């Protein structure tokens, strides 16, 4: 039943098929056809991600509320679902305050410049089979290159506000992101090595063990690893955690939210922005979050592929059930799962201090990322019976060694005496 | 009229070139509008990078002329004003003032009122310390979760205050020679229930936070206050005991009926932020033990010494200093009476204000984020600092 349904109707292909139909219909006018293709791959992104941003703010406020024994927003619509709309209207109606001493040009442009790279990096995210807005062979490099622009914007915003909190926030942002960018990029290297390509679509395809193709044929790819997704290898597990932690710092999220540390710097670089400018910064922050989560999923969690790792190759003639769900649904599910973890972390942890933050990046994450690359190299080159123990030993040995080396002396629980 | 001279080098002014300016440091005025200065308090911080090289506490934004108002109103008339001193702990402020006047006039307090005062004061200590434990982790950058857990517990205590006094925070409950009214029906049972359940909050807090790696790294060895400096600067309360000085007025003076209860005084060895936080948590457990004993032993009887006049209350000529151990430290009232219906001099020794004087000593050489942590660990309330 499942097989016949799947054979006649492939949900994964609906959007791609639609795009093909449109381009074919316009094939007589090549310019129009390519324009249509560009619009079809960009307009949905610009439409969907602000929507995701709205859902994310609602989730975050509701989630934080539950973590904190509160109900969260519940005045606007059922379960407070219209809260993002209310927030948006409020932001639009608020007075746009520009400090008298501010650099007006950059104060105006900073929020807009913040949004642009956030959307640009989405171009290389594979949202499904053949659903990459831009097939770039240097996809991952492009992502980091364009993505790091947003840091510059944070500093521009901090500097242009002519406020000491803002400037301190901007300075912290530069220091922090430069440190964590290194760890983040190095954490992204192993999947590139495994796929032999920087093309994000190829990286996803390299993680698919048994790929089901219309007609019931099972195509086996990447049989070398036990399970398809890189996160189920020793270096992949280590790399995913590294990537996730570094991306928390990259996104200025708790416990690395020093640039906008509200208990120290009021709101850091955002202090002097109000109304819609503030909303734009917020939008950029969340789109960045989704983009990095999508990249993390692409690199380590199998991107748009469903959890088909319990579907051994050659076992069944039917399609894996996961294939009935479109790829973009899986990708967005993974992104929102990561958002959930980030909200959880935000509700739980206190903030690190600035020197501890830098120490953590340079003394812990960076060496671990380097060791992890070596571990991945062994894993990829050696047969599986040698690869697993060596990779396990290297990744987790490096982790343990760095834990011991970085242990702060004289810090720990204490006993107290009574008079 | 002498001609105004331009500001030149001859008159002592120097026109600095940009090379002479100290461009290495950044002076930041943190406050009075700042999320973690606990009210309208300002820290003028000079930063070298992120390191604090100079810190000047600036206060007075909440000055309300409390002492002068009290000198112009009747003796009992300033009792509601003492609520506003430390608005987290109105009941202990009430008690300190009532105790001072009782000492001045030699008024005795009925047994039941003494017990009620101890119960209310220790409940106040629980509420204050729970709040501090929450706010402190908030200052460390946690997104309000520990704070709201702590506020949940505080709410239960405030409900009890509302039940007995009619107000959640501005209780105005103590009177010279007793308390305003007896505990209503069922109040003591509800308090027993709260005391029985409160340790679960402390256990939860211990489990979630006191061993947290980030909290340990952020608070241990930060803002060290030596016992010598603590004594020299007249610190009091948990901040003093965190530096290892055994000085608790409940033990030293044994005012009220504190000598009847069995409780211990926890002491810190390092005098850093972690010790100051932990001492509060340990003190809460001791307060719970005092509460258990007091709730068991509380006798029946009147709660007000009927010999004390309410109208036209005139203490004899003389002066006295009465003090108690509030959650924040030694709160004292120095009163001079000229035999009239209002105090001749009414002077408060506020613990928050005096504990604040060592802020710079603790903050120098630390990071900006630590200055916020240290301020949070001192536990100030601006109503009491500025009066």
Summarize the helices and strands and which ones pair or pack.
The complex is a heterodimer of chains A (419) and B (387).
Chain A: H1 2-8, H2 14-25, H3 30-67, H4 83-93, H5 104-120, H6 139-147, H7 149-160, H8 164-195, H9 200-205, E1 210-213, E2 217-220, H10 234-250, H11 275-300, H12 327-348, H13 354-381, H14 384-406, E3 417-418
Antiparallel strand pairs in A: 1-2
Helix pairs in contact in A: 2-3, 3-11, 3-12, 4-11, 5-7, 5-11, 7-8, 8-10, 8-13, 10-11, 10-13, 11-12, 13-14
Chain B: E1 25-30, E2 42-48, E3 51-58, H1 66-71, H2 79-83, H3 90-105, H4 111-139, H5 145-165, E4 174-175, E5 178-179, H6 187-210, H7 213-219, H8 227-232, H9 238-242, H10 249-252, E6 266-267, H11 273-297, E7 318-326, E8 329-337, E9 345-349, H12 351-356, H13 359-363, H14 368-378, H15 382-386
Antiparallel strand pairs in B: 1-2, 2-3, 4-5, 7-8, 8-9
Helix pairs in contact in B: 3-4, 4-5, 4-11, 4-14, 5-6, 6-11, 11-14
Point out poorly predicted stretches of chain B: none
Kindly name the structural category of chain A.
mainly alpha
Kindly report the average pLDDT value of chain B.
87
Radius of gyration of chain A: 23 Å
Give a verbal description of the structure:
The complex is a heterodimer of chains A (419) and B (387). In chain A, 62% of the residues lie in helices and 2% in strands. With 419 residues, chain A is mainly alpha-helical. Chain A folds into two domains: 17-22 and 33-93, no CATH class; 99-406, no CATH class. In chain A, helix 4 crosses helix 11 (275-300). With 387 residues, chain B is an alpha+beta fold. Chain B has a three-stranded antiparallel β-sheet with strand order 1-2-3. A three-stranded antiparallel β-sheet of chain B has the order 7-8-9. In chain B, a hairpin with a 7-residue loop joins strand 8 (329-337) and strand 9 (345-349). Chain A binds chain B through residues 64, 67-70, 164-165, 167-168, 254-255, 257-258, 261-264, 266, 346-356, 408, 410-414, 416-419, and chain B through 26-28, 34-36, 47, 50, 137-145, 148-149, 152, 210-212, 214-218, 220-221, 246, 248, 251, 264-270, 274-275, 278-279, 282, 367-370, 372. Strand 3 of chain A pairs antiparallel with strand 6 (266-267) of chain B, so a sheet runs across the interface.
């Amino acid at each position: 039943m499942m097989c016949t349904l799947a054979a006649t109707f492939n949900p994964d292909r609906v959007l791609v098929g639609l795009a093909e139909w449109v381009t074919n219909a316009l094939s007589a006018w090549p310019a129009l056809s390519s324009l249509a293709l560009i619009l079809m791959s960009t307009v949905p992104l610009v439409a969907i991600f602000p929507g995701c941003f709205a859902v994310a703010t609602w989730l975050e406020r509701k989630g934080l509320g539950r973590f904190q024994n509160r109900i969260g927003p519940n005045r606007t619509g059922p379960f407070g679902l219209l809260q993002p709309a209310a927030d948006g209207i409020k932001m639009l109606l608020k007075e746009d305050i520009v400090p008298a001493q501010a650099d007006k040009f950059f104060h105006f442009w900073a929020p807009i410049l913040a949004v642009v790279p956030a959307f640009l990096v989405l171009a290389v995210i594979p949202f499904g089979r053949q659903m990459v807005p831009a097939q770039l062979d240097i996809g991952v490099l492009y992502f980091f290159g364009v993505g790091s622009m947003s840091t510059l914007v944070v500093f521009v915003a901090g500097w242009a506000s002519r406020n000491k909190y803002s400037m301190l926030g901007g300075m912290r942002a530069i220091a922090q992101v430069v440190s964590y960018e290194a760890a983040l990029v190095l954490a992204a290297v192993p999947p590139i090595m495994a796929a032999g390509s920087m093309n994000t679509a190829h990286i996803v395809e390299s993680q698919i063990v048994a790929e089901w193709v219309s007609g019931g044929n099972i195509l086996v790819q990447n049989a070398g690893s036990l399970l398809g997704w890189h996160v189920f290898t020793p270096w992949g597990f280590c790399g995913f955690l590294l990537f996730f932690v570094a991306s928390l710092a990259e996104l200025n999220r708790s416990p690395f939210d020093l640039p906008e540390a509200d208990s120290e710097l009021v709101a850091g670089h955002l202090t002097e922005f109000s109304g819609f400018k503030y909303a734009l910064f917020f939008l950029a922050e969340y789109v960045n979050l989704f983009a990095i989560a999508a990249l993390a999923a692409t690199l380590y969690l199998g991107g748009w592929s469903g959890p088909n790792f319990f579907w051994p190759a050659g076992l069944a003639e039917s399609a894996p059930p996961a294939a009935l769900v479109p790829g973009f649904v899986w990708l967005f599910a993974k992104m929102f799962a990561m958002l959930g973890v980030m909200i959880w972390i935000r509700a739980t942890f206190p903030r690190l201090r600035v020197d501890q933050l830098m120490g953590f990046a340079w003394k812990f994450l960076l060496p671990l990322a380097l060791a992890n690359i070596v571990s991945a190299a062994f894993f990829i080159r050696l047969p599986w019976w040698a690869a697993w123990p060596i990779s396990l030993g290297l990744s987790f040995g490096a982790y343990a060694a760095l834990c011991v080396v970085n242990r702060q002396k004289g810090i720990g629980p204490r006993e107290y005496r009574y008079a | 009229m002498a001609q105004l001279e331009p500001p030149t080098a001859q008159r002592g002014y120097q026109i600095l070139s940009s090379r002479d300016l100290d461009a290495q440091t950044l002076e930041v005025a943190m406050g009075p509008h700042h999320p973690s200065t606990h009210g309208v308090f300002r820290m003028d911080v000079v930063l070298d990078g992120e390191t604090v090289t100079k810190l000047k506490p600036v206060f007075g934004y909440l000055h309300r002329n409390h002492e002068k108002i009290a000198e112009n109103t009747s003796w009992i008339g300033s009792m509601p004003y003492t609520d506003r001193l430390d608005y987290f702990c109105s009941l202990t402020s009430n008690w300190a003032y009532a105790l001072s006047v009782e000492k001045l006039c030699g008024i005795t307090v009925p047994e039941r009122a003494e017990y009620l005062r101890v119960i209310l004061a220790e409940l106040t200590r629980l509420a204050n310390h729970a709040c501090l434990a929450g706010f402190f982790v908030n200052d460390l950058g946690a997104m309000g979760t520990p704070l709201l857990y702590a506020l949940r517990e505080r709410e239960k205590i405030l409900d009890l205050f509302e039940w007995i006094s009619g107000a959640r925070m501005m209780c105005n409950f103590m009177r010279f020679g007793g308390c305003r009214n007896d505990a209503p029906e069922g109040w003591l049972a509800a308090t027993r229930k709260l005391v029985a359940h409160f340790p679960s909050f402390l256990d939860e807090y211990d489990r979630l936070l006191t061993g947290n790696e980030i909290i340990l790294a952020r608070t241990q060895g930060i803002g060290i206050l030596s016992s010598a400096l603590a004594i020299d600067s007249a610190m009091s309360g948990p901040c003093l005991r965190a530096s290892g000085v055994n000085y608790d007025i409940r033990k030293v003076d044994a005012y009220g009926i504190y000598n009847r209860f069995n409780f211990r005084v926890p002491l810190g060895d390092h005098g850093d932020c972690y010790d100051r936080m932990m001492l509060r948590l340990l003190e809460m457990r001791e307060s719970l033990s005092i509460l258990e004993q007091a709730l068991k032993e509380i006798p029946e009887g009147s709660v007000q010494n009927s010999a004390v006049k309410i109208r036209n209350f005139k203490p004899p000529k003389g002066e006295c200093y009465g003090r108690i151990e509030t959650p924040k430290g030694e709160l004292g009232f120095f009163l001079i009476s000229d035999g009239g219906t209002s105090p001749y001099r009414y002077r408060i020794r506020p613990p928050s204000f005096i504990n604040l004087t060592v802020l710079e000593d603790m903050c120098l050489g630390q990071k900006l984020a630590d200055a916020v942590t240290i301020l949070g660990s001192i536990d100030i309330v601006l109503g009491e600092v500025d009066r």
